[in-house]
Amino acid sequence: MQARSFGYLRDPLFLVCLVLYFLNRFVGKPLTSGGFLHEHFNDLICVPFWLPILLWLSRKAGLRKTDAPPLLGEVLVPTAGWTVIFELWLPLLSPRFIGDPWDMTWYLVGGMGAYYFWRFTASRGALARAR
């Protein structure tokens, strides 16, 4: 069974996160005054939004040799990198940035959720083709 090709910028999860980002930005945040939509929603969708773009650019540059769904390392390494940059390094450079352990948690939750979604949809596609 061959795994389904990863959609990159046509990936359904990426497209859902793209729509959800704009809905949150232009509808959710203006209608609410704090809470999850203001504080953590973008952190939750960060990996499923940015990783397909990063992997697409890597593929176009010849750095990624396959169109398979992201491997665990391809999810965890950027997640760890974004965590270090946005929650540890930037707050050290400027008081404008604030490190938040909950942001780190939501990056990981979003990243692992995306990883399992991509694995599940790839295996489902392979099973359907095998029938």
Automatic annotation (TrEMBL):
The chain crosses the membrane at residues 12-28, 40-59, 71-92, 104-122. It comes from the Bacteria. Keywords: Membrane, Transmembrane, Transmembrane helix. This is Magnesium citrate secondary transporter. It comes from Armatimonas rosea.
